[in-house]
């Protein structure tokens, strides 16, 4: 897994590396060399290159890259932006060197004047809204018609959250150094980054990794899952109980159960409304079916089911009826097994926040932003403004694993460690997709000791990959939740 840094961590890593004896100008030269090399590899029309540079060290990276490209025979110009009295020491040094090279310095530029623009206005330290001459520069870059390469992070993107600080450069390619940054992975910043290339330049974060670190989980991280035990039987591979499906919704139970079976669970048992027995028996004959009837949950029946299971998933299609509320409360009183809570279970928890006191077992929750808003009382806008903080704060406060679903999802563990999922696409934005995800996570929960990260993070990675494969067959617009099911096998 790849560790992802925020602005403060990146700044500290930079300072520690310099304090360890690495000159800052050497790091800047390495960053500039990475930019120049990657630009040459793009295959773009590089006949007229412009580096748009700010006043800080990111601007210095841009000036140095322009010099290296000029050395290689390219026609290069540099547009200096901002008050020259505020130039950093390294920026001044790079300008002094660059003045001796065949570089044209300009104060402005017109659309169509350059074929490539290197965006070196702001780096990871930007925390204020872009304004003044810098806003003018961002707008000019975006309307230039040129191919755009951003240095480290597109100017105007918040390094920690991916939020847009007023306006941001929309790059075709971002060359980021040392470590990827959270803002490159989280939308809307991810949408401004284009392709992201990571280049190591000698900066190293402290070896002591804090508990509240952030990682990126990608396909390569799930390719080394342990091989299934050939001497095992269905009991060896654990038993999952899924409590799902009200009288009008059996599809959610089917999607979750089928997804769980595809993860390799030995047995799946569905506890659902009696009206769902026949359709579920036809849809998924591999699953055991138990049902409820009447207005009061049956404690003895529930206890027998919990005694049978190794883990539980509760919530998909459950409804928020009075019966469902009573069933959830009874379940929380009786359960001791690892549990995945999804959908209506979370909506019921939001209605009755005192129920969190009853969660005394290992628990993973899988809210989308709307459900998270109901759980926390925060607006969707506030949650989306910092997904990592929202997931981490809830997980640590309630002692659960919180998988917060969005275009880029965040899984936060009880100790604050977070995982960002980048494998998905818009094919997953369809009804029932969350039920499939919950089933995958629940199926992996009973196998968590063999996983490289929490089941929710691994499950989300697999779910995203399934979306990718389904969209290749059906297109992102036409892929349905059921289409994801057959893709699970390709990643386990």
TrEMBL record:
Pfam families: Carb_kinase, YjeF_N. Its cofactor is Mg(2+); K(+). SUPFAM superfamilies: Ribokinase-like, YjeF N-terminal domain-like. Its EC number is 4.2.1.136, 5.1.99.6. Keywords: ATP-binding, Isomerase, Lyase, Metal-binding, Multifunctional enzyme, NAD, NADP, Nucleotide-binding, Potassium. Residues 217-492 form the YjeF C-terminal domain. (6S)-NADPHX binds at residues 57-61, 123-129, 152, 252, 317, 368, 435. It catalyses: (6S)-NADPHX + ADP = AMP + phosphate + NADPH + H(+); (6R)-NADPHX = (6S)-NADPHX; (6S)-NADHX + ADP = AMP + phosphate + NADH + H(+); (6R)-NADHX = (6S)-NADHX. K(+) binds at residues 58, 119, 155. InterPro entries: Carbohydrate_kinase_pred_CS, CARKD, Nnr, Ribokinase-like, YjeF_N_dom, YjeF_N_dom_sf. GO terms for biological process: metabolite repair; nicotinamide nucleotide metabolic process. One of its GO terms (molecular function) is metal ion binding. AMP binds at residues 405-409, 434. Binds 1 potassium ion per subunit. Residues 10-209 form the YjeF N-terminal domain. Belongs to the NnrD/CARKD family. In the C-terminal section; belongs to the NnrD/CARKD family. Catalyzes the epimerization of the S- and R-forms of NAD(P)HX, a damaged form of NAD(P)H that is a result of enzymatic or heat-dependent hydration. This is a prerequisite for the S-specific NAD(P)H-hydrate dehydratase to allow the repair of both epimers of NAD(P)HX. Bifunctional enzyme that catalyzes the epimerization of the S- and R-forms of NAD(P)HX and the dehydration of the S-form of NAD(P)HX at the expense of ADP, which is converted to AMP. This allows the repair of both epimers of NAD(P)HX, a damaged form of NAD(P)H that is a result of enzymatic or heat-dependent hydration. PANTHER family: ATP-DEPENDENT (S)-NAD(P)H-HYDRATE DEHYDRATASE, ATP-DEPENDENT (S)-NAD(P)H-HYDRATE DEHYDRATASE FAMILY MEMBER. HAMAP family: NADHX_dehydratase (MF_01965), NADHX_epimerase (MF_01966). This is Bifunctional NAD(P)H-hydrate repair enzyme. It comes from Candidatus Scatomonas pullistercoris. The gene is nnrE.
